[in-house]
Amino acid sequence: MTMRKNIIIFAICLSVIFTLVTGCIDEAESGGISENVTGQQAESALTLYSSNDILYQVSTINALLEGVYDGETDYESLKQHGDFGIGTFSGLDGEMIELDGIVYQIKDDGIAYPVNDSMTTPFAAVTFFDADTEDLITEPMNRSQTEDYLAALMPNRNIMYAIKINGTFDYVRTRSVPKQEKPYPKLVEVTKDQPTFELEQVNGVIVGYWLPSYVEGINVPGYHLHFITEDRTAGGHVLEFGITEGTVGIDNTHRFFMELPKSNEFLDSDLTKDTGSELEQVEK
Amino acid sequence: MTMRKNIIIFAICLSVIFTLVTGCIDEAESGGISENVTGQQAESALTLYSSNDILYQVSTINALLEGVYDGETDYESLKQHGDFGIGTFSGLDGEMIELDGIVYQIKDDGIAYPVNDSMTTPFAAVTFFDADTEDLITEPMNRSQTEDYLAALMPNRNIMYAIKINGTFDYVRTRSVPKQEKPYPKLVEVTKDQPTFELEQVNGVIVGYWLPSYVEGINVPGYHLHFITEDRTAGGHVLEFGITEGTVGIDNTHRFFMELPKSNEFLDSDLTKDTGSELEQVEK
Fold first, then answer.
1. pLDDT the model gives residue A150
2. ipTM of this predicted complex?
3. Of B81, B158, B269, which is closest to A44 when you measure between CB atoms?
4. Which of A7, A145, A156, B19 lies at a CB distance of 3.0 to 4.6 Å from B267, suitable for a disulfide?
């Protein structure tokens, strides 16, 4: 962190304390125009963040489908918005999984690599995972059966859910994506030749989301799951699995924050297409 | 503001200052799991809010189309997220316009009423308006011509734009919506009999947004504009207008924050429908 930031934060904190002490935050001022951070905005921001109930997203899935692969947000920034999540890397260089605040890169060899804070992402969705419900899986289920089981645990279909499954798996079929060179092909072209991996008799963790249909174009409606082994050596985007036992944590999420890239690559892309069918292809 | 909030904010500020003084914020800790607000989350939140570049939204347009009209977020809270915006009121009791931090309620008589902080909204979108570009309208234009003029001022079609037009109008045709009683009808039923108003030779301000197509289901793709007269006595949802001269401010917005309601009314509604055609009907 730079000294300049230190000074700014310090000044904001002092102003918040001063505002509280002098009792300046009242209803009369709450609607005032502000060019900079006010005590009330700071309060609002802090109140929001104290909930940990935010799905924070970089870019849109439509942009990724269109081949907008240059990373803009670095992982140091991303981790400030969540300790749990999925995504990819600049140049579409593998599948990303974040777990317990540590980010892993599953490259096209299926191996999990460490990730530097200076690495960047063109698309990611993270949250501070804090399970609202925890349940046990005690009998063998494949992916489809697990999805039905998860569905019964979700109180409704209109909010967002972060999902964490810690378990013992008969098998997990994953895929990753190879790093692309410019001009970038569309995602549906890349995944036609995606490398897939079969992990057998393995302990590990599934990390991902179930999102409502109204996120279409912005993120992936329904389930989107990544996997990493217990020893954090392998994983990828989940295609299929058989779980024998495990624990399921679900984090009901009512807040969504999307950060749109400022790169010309993003701004010039065509995000108006109906990408439903392409999305179905690339997720399989 | 309650004493409890005061104490929490004060404690957060102290912890931020303590963290800064002791130099505890470094890269090594940035990925840590946090149950509560950490100095780094606070920093992140404050950095975000200092940008004023956030479109903050309550609920989804699909929920409003389905008749989810009970307000949940009060205007005191909403104003913490913006001094400019549009929306509606609990029970669909009129059109909302916020300008310079003051909220107005245009009821079904076309008159603008003051709004108490304790009143609530089922759907609203606000931002801290800070124009990136300012341009002049110097020749007469109708709505369609003005939309073309605005389109030429937007650098791309992939981010969100807040729009403010301060001008002299030959006429402005607006509509409002009457307060509904339960069981709430769908929005498309309500707007079939909407009261419309013709304001002639009037100065006033148009407040609204142009949003990308990928917000479909979440908000209104394209233009969504409300109007209020210069003397703040009348207005509504804009159907048509003729402007003779004015100033146009556009605020390019790269960040989007959506707060989903926790009410059963929202959670139990069917948000899976394709609402494109209904939306077109209710916006006219």
1. 98
2. 0.85
3. B81
4. A156
